[in-house]
Amino acid sequence: MASGDEQPISDILRIYSGSSHGELAQEIADYLGCNLCKRSTQRFSNDNLFVYLENSVRAKEVVIIQSFCPDVSDNIIELLMMIDAARSASAKTVHAVIPYFSYGRSDKKDQPRISISGRLMADLIDTAGAGHVMTMTLHSPQVHGFFSVPTDHLTAHPVFIRHFKKRKLRNTVVVSPDIGHAKRATKLARALGVGVAAGDKERTADDTVHVADIIGDVKGKNVIVFDDEIATGGSVLALVKLLRKKGVKKITLACTHGVFSGPAIKRLKAMSDIQEIVTTNTVPIPKEKRLDNMTVLSVASVFGEAIRRNIMGKSVGSLFAFWPE
Length: 325
Ligand code: R5P
Prior knowledge:
By secondary structure, this protein is of the alpha/beta class. It has 9 helices and 14 strands. The strands form 3 sheets. The chain has a 7-stranded mixed β-sheet. Ribose-5-phosphate is lined by residues 177-178, 181, 207, 209, 227-235.
């Protein structure tokens, strides 16, 4: 992909994958025409981790790809150790690529004596020595501000738009489960040329929510429920129940991060009237979680292109303007 650039990107870059999501890291490396570098991680008998980067990184642009998925704490520590190892081995810049930043959900102090852990994680990444962060669809856009190093907050919109344009949508409304994400839903709806609506959602526990009402016209429409992530499936479960009561036709679920934790898969299987569940590969989705009506879109090209442009000193701000829609 580096044709026309003066120096082959593979001479400049060293790409490493943490333990969390080797498959996506390989796809990103393939997009860039590079090999993944070797890394080994071991666990000592006292449970401490040991990480070793097997190639020289001196004066190289080092990309470390690690998603915050289970085992989240081990994966975070491994990422920090890889960043520290690369920095102290004289890498030119260490780029932390975090397709799913799970701690973004801890973005406020809404009870006493709690940690705003999203901020803490961002500080740790900075302290470890990352000079640049790339991530996707943070829980709220403001979480971007937790990072004190330059950060590219990417979106999976181009891959969703490409996918839904093939579906030739008619009489369709994009529905956000809550007002907080209505802006993102509006962006998708506009790109698809359809309407938008939003739920009035309140979380009652980690895996249960209450959706009091829906703002916007959904009666007799096909709906695409669009959220940043499906974790326990509590949000989509409550919203879909209400949408059915409101007399919608076909229901599609779409989310950037298919976390599918706890009871999510059982809940999704039980919703037999869902046409399609569309998600991306920001986190690995094992076989047992891949339902027959699930489509997993790859975001490797979005990350690959953002990395290429960063390394080549090209604008990333204009990234999406060039994307075929
Ligand atoms: C919450 O604000 C997020 O946007 C998602 O709606 C939430 O993380 C989904 O979690 P769950 O599937 O457990 O309801």
